[in-house]
Amino acid sequence: xxxxxxxxxxxxxxxxxxxxxxxxxxxxxxxxxxxxxxxxxxxxxxxxxxxxxxxxxxxxxxxxxxxxxxxxxxxxxxxxxxxxxxxxxxxxxxxxxxxxxxxxxxxxxxxxxxxxxxxxxxxxxxxxxxxxxxxxxxxxxxxxxxxxxxxxxxxxxxxxxxxxxxxxxxxxxxxxxxxxxxxxxxxxxxxxxxxxxxxxxxxxxxxxxxxxxxxxxxxxxxxxxxxxxxxxxxxxxxxxxxxxxxxxxxxxxxxxxxxxxxxxxxxxxxxxxxxxxxxxxxxxxxxxxxxxxxxxxxxxxxxxxxxxxxxxxxxxxxxxxxxxxxxxxxxxxxxxxxxxxxxxxxxxxxxxxxxxxxxxxxxxxxxxxxxxxxxxxxxxxxxxxxxxxxxxxxxxxxxxxxxxxxxxxxxxxxxxxxxxxxxxxxxxxxxxxxxxxxxxxxxxxxxxxxxxxxxxxxxxxxxxxxxxxxxxxxxxxxxxxxxxxxxxxxxxxxxxxxxxxxxxxxxxxxxxxxxxxxxxxxxxxxxxxxxxxxxxxxxxxxxxxxxxxxxxxxxxxxxxxxxxxxxxxxxxxxxxxxxxxxxxxxxxxxxxxxxxxxxxxxxxxxxxxxxxxxxxxxxxxxxxxxxxxxxxxxxxxxxxxxxxxxxxxxxxxxxxxxxxxxxxxxxxxxxxxxxxxxxxxxxxxxxxxxxxxxxxxxxxxxxxxxxxxxxxxxxxxxxxxxxxxxxxxxxxxxxxxxxxxxxxxxxxxxxxxxxxxxxxxxxxxxxxxxxxxxxxxxxxxxxxxxxxxxxxxxxxxxxxxxxxxxxxxxxxxxxxxxxxxxxxxxxxxxxxxxxxxxxxxxxxxxxxxxxxxxxxxxxxxxxxxxxxxxxxxxxxxxxxxxxxxxxxxxxxxxxxxxxxxxxxxxxxxxxxxxxxxxxxxxxxxxxxxxxxxxxxxxxxxxxxxxxxxxxxxxxxxxxxxxxxxxxxxxxxxxxxxxxxxxxxxxxxxxxxxxxxxxxxxxxxxxxxxxxxxxxxxxxxxxxxxxxxxxxxxxxxxxxxxxxxxxxxxxxxxxxxxxxxxxxxxx
Length: 1066
What we know:
Structural class: alpha/beta
Largest sheet: 10 strands, mixed
Keywords: Cell membrane, Chloride, Glycoprotein, Ion transport, Membrane, Phosphoprotein, Potassium, Potassium transport, Symport, Transmembrane, Transmembrane helix, Transport
Low-confidence stretches: 30-54, 877-881, 895-984
Catalytic activity: K(+)(in) + chloride(in) = K(+)(out) + chloride(out)
Helix content: 40-55%
Strand order of the largest sheet: 8-7-6-9-10-15-14-11-12-13
Transmembrane segments: 56-79, 91-114, 135-156, 191-208, 215-234, 354-374, 394-420, 440-458, 494-512, 518-540, 552-576
Membrane topology: Multi-pass membrane protein
Radius of gyration: 43 Å
Domain Amino acid permease/ SLC12A: 62-236, 355-633
Mean pLDDT: 77
Number of strands: 15
């Protein structure tokens, strides 16, 4: 108990709502734990002790890590080649597009990162909490794959620098034939790459702290290298370095196997051939047979780096794309074409190793601008993350964009085009091309780039397993949960093994130019969703969206998202489709199998907004007949444990709906809501669990009401929202309505029937619901029989069609029965009904059953007598509960004995009696007519329309207005001679209510006919007669329905709403 007196008013709530004074310390010292999430709060205090005080500022914590991650292998190994191939202008466009993409993404990321605390997990956390677990998991795994493949790319860059520029002699696979050299290089990459990845994995496993300590060393190497490039550019203005290039005609020659750039030299007044001569001719003598192009063209030597003042920029402005295996040629250089058939395979030309085009270069270049998330990943270690992340990230992108764009212009202005297009520096003795420009020595760049790629590879192998571990620990992707485990200190051992394995796939691809577009896809997809997350949150204007970073707008996010998507397809349309397919598969997997998480994500908010918009657009009125489908309100009964009594009702619902339309599953608890809160929640959980098992897609609504009867009324009146309201009520037949402890169940049932009619809603009553099939059962044969007695909107036709869409009922055949009286033309009726079904596009077998007038049997009188006696006893006898039960049981037994002794007479009756039973809630005297036997023959639909005419709503199917009028004003002469036989009348029968006798007569005869035809049917659908207008006969109404459906296994009583639900029109 709270002992203070100042806050006595709140003392009872102190357990659940703590004092602000005690909470402020926790809120203010919040680090990187997710606030309010139950699974973290238990560990909050213990974790807070472990977390060291945040101490890093913007420069050390965000700017430098982003700089290190962005600048890297592509800058040193491929940027010069991209400039030479695409030209300065197109290269500028490529770099500008990629940098604009990352800048717009950084703006969106800054908005998300400053909208509250971002714990460890960086981009994955931001996307998953903004767009939901499905998008978060899919994009998080894509980002993980991108980071992993980035590790492979950095390792391949490391080996390329090692084997091409540092120690070419270390190659394991060596070849003499130049044509086989690329394949040998790939094999060397694979062997060395596998060794390095094992070594790096061991380093990461042993201790991440060593990797983090070396990070600044690697960053220093990168910065020194870039400074060396700028220093070299300045030096070329007044003292260009000496890097001569040898050209034969306009073709660039590789200086690997010769030193002197001449065909022959003068030595001691003697002309001697050079090593170059011997490469093109079959002998060292001057009379040797030489290559035709070699004979026709001169050998010239030009400077590879003419300098920034030379004007070479004009030659490098335009692109020079080429096919694979083309010779690198200098523009505007005189050349004489040689013979067409001259073989160039073994000649010392510089060849292009891959086909080049604009979109491919975009894919290769894009990885050089990734790494913008490095700052947000360290949010827990920053003094003020909400200030440092936007400032540091945007400054880092601005810096690197300036470096890239300036390098493009400077490379194009300083270096000869043929050297720029010489990817591996073969024309300059195998020196790294960008190294030729550097000052004081090319080795500054070579060593610096080697260490920077090593460091970037280690960073990727450190970061990727942690990202996978964060996703695994969230528990949204079940099959990767094992990767959430690690060493005792939390290091992700299993995730590291998987990362090394996936990295090995990239190593086996072995080509830097092939791996780069793959990781471009994954990074672009991640950035696209960061932009989408920001745009969605901004447009939804959710109350929680309050970023401290104010310089964002949804249009910027949208442009960034569009640019990311465009770049994906520009890079490689098939890689883009594969990446989207992978993300889509992960999304659907999480949706179906993943753990449900409620993170207050934007997609949920978007769904709510879309639902609101759609509901406002849906007309608040009945849909057109073509769009009508049963929107169900399923009324369930619960037992004392709040468990569903008839689970098969939900099975039947899912079979009828197949996930389409609206389903509301409702139930009523008797009592007062304040007392029944816990039970209501338990009931809702039980119902939702059963809905999940039965695959019933819909909503659950539990109502607490003082009386069961009122609760059902509330549900019928208020379930649904706007235009999304139910139009059909589905319930189970009250099996125990005769038992005295459930003496109100039949009253509730009858009142529910009346209320659905008043609300103009259809009603489906499933009798013997526990015999209905489960969703796992399959009927391999059998019939669904429809008994069409009166027309109340065509729902009887529609229901079997809907049921047969489900695999349980798919192989059942549909049969339609209708009844004819003695003055109807049965043959014509059958033809008309077949034509009607043909127009409705329904396949069904049609049968017209003839039911003629005959005397009321003694069995009917006896049955009616038992019913009335039972009714009177319940009303008048004031017996104890036990005595009443015994009395009722004896009456029931006597009734059953009577039924067993009485054999059914021939299945003949009067159709007007059937109509009297079905339609007595309309004008009673009109509904009980016995038509004149001299009336002309007419079709069955016209006969049934006489009932429909009494319904005020317009019917617009196949019956004309004239037929309605003619039917309505038919001769109403009564002929009651068939109702009783005075010669066989027992004394106690004379006092019976003759209306009850007629109704019982109809129920008995109709039941006999249905049994005769449909006893073996898998399901019987039957028009449900309405309850009497006089409420005194409600219990008799239940008896009529019981007799009508007696002996049938599965019955669905259908009572239409009166409006048309099926049409012949398209």
